[in-house]
TrEMBL record:
Keywords: Signal. Residues 34-272 form the Nucleoside phosphorylase domain. It comes from Neobacillus vireti LMG 21834. Residues 1-24 form the signal peptide. This is Purine phosphorylase family 1. GO terms for cellular component: cytosol. One of its GO terms (biological process) is nucleoside metabolic process. It holds the Pfam family PNP_UDP_1.
Length: 285
């Protein structure tokens, strides 16, 4: 009997050094869930890291996360790596380890809309996987006909039911926050548009025109649609913001990834400041 009493006392003493689940949850609520901001490359997150000043770096697998604050607002900056698979994997790890209250996927993009110039920025009202295509059947020697390809919807299982998405909508409150921050963007115009994503780098003018006409895309890049798909799977609000770094269809001869990456990150900082620490409901007022 004395043995069991002593054992219970030792266990109570040992557990006293650790917070209960309730205390841990309360602590996290007190600190606040972070806003996550993603960039595929170093040039797309360097401004964000500078804005934080002091931060803690953590690595999960080959993916890096930087935890700190911007103007007192908890943030986690994620360097996803380039491409759809990297973006999906790093987003899943981001959600698992940091439980963000929102995800802003931002960075550079190629222009699809002839009216968009280099350094203009697009608030992605929706994003679409433009690499998800099907072709008609053609036999050997019949060639390929890209202009006959059709877009395929993305299937998601929600509450046991299959739901199909032609595109993924950004959270309306986050779009409002981006619009409120837009006047502070001084490097070009800010428009609401549609972001197309794929692992194919399109430089053929006729193909770009085809995407713009058939899918309504404003710009293209390689991450946002997979981020959106994972975010929806975990019920996390997301927003896509992209700055045009090059365009084959606007007449611009500039191609400047580094500057566009800096400008978009600066815009993302202003969006974070607009969101602040309050509930999303306040952004709609």
């Amino acid at each position: 009997m004395r043995f069991f009493t002593a054992l219970l006392m030792m266990m109570a003493f040992f557990l006293a050094g650790f917070p209960s689940m309730k205390e841990a949850a309360s602590s996290r609520q007190k600190d606040g869930q972070p806003i996550a901001v993603q960039g595929a490359m170093d040039i797309e997150i360097s401004v964000l890291l500078k804005e934080m000043g002091q931060y803690k770096q953590e690595t999960h697998g080959n993916y890096s996360y930087y935890i700190g604050r911007i103007k007192g607002i908890p943030v986690v900056i994620s360097r996803t790596g380039i491409g759809m698979v990297h973006a999906a994997a790093s987003t899943a790890l981001l959600i698992e380890h940091y439980d963000p209250r929102a995800i802003i996927n931002q960075g550079t993009a190629g222009g699809h809309d002839p009216n968009l110039r280099v350094f203009d920025s697009v608030i992605g009202m929706e994003v679409m996987n433009i690499g998800r295509l099907s072709s008609e059947r053609l036999g050997e020697g019949q060639g390929i006909r890209p202009k006959t390809w059709k877009f395929v919807k993305t299937e998601m299982r929600e509450n046991g039911e299959i739901k199909e998405y032609a595109s993924f909508k950004s959270n309306p409150s986050l779009v409002k926050a981006a619009l409120r921050a837009a006047p502070k963007y001084k490097y070009g115009k800010v428009v609401i548009g549609k972001v197309g994503s794929s692992d194919f780098l399109n430089r053929e003018v006729d193909r770009i025109h085809w995407f713009h006409k058939k899918a309504g895309t404003s710009v293209e890049e390689m991450e946002a649609a997979s981020v959106a798909q994972v975010a929806i799977g975990f019920n996390i609000p997301f927003l896509s913001v992209r700055t045009v770094s090059n365009s084959e269809v606007s007449g611009d001869k500039i191609e400047d990834l580094e500057t566009a990456g800096q400008y978009c990150a600066e815009f993302a900082v202003e969006i974070v400041k607009t969101m602040g620490n309050g509930p999303f409901s306040s952004l709609a007022n």
